[in-house]
Amino acid sequence: xxxxxxxxxxxxxxxxxxxxxxxxxxxxxxxxxxxxxxxxxxxxxxxxxxxxxxxxxxxxxxxxxxxxxxxxxxxxxxxxxxxxxxxxxxxxxxxxxxxxxxxxxxxxxxxxxxxxxxxxxxxxxxxxxxxxxxxxxxxxxxxxxxxxxxxxxxxxxxxxxxxxxxxxxxxxxxxxxxxxxxxxxxxxxxxxxxxxxxxxxxxxxxxxxxxxxxxxxxxxx
Length: 221
Prior knowledge:
alpha+beta, 2 domains
């Protein structure tokens, strides 16, 4: 028998898993592996019948052998009784064998094509989400770096804001010249982004006072 089965992580929250012994968990998985994935023909009670997906004909001995070392016939018998009470399977037995049907097989065991479609869809979704997260993270990182460098993300002032501040300080700085000067420089002070334009205004005031005989740089625009 080829192919594979699916085990949902939610299984670990179910009573059939949490309340089972290690031997019963081994039998549980082995039964899933032994079940027919697609329709198949078997002989049952001397007659040919078509086994549905999730259904198969076997014996206690066969299940024991498939489980491998550490699992006894009694372990298999006890597990089948328990699983039947938990509505995981039905178990019809005769002298010549037993027919086991895994209930709700179709709910979690899709065929290969459906499984691949679902998997590809999930992969595409994850890739799109991942790419979006990467882009967002890059932007966040850039913004964070700007904030780290400047303390607060710098926003260039308007001419009116500069005018109001210069009026408040009663200085002789021309707001339009100040704005034009730093706009032309990309609001850079030397090789660094301006942190505080009000502090730059104060610096210009000091230069105006100290450069009594010289023409400050901004005056030469």
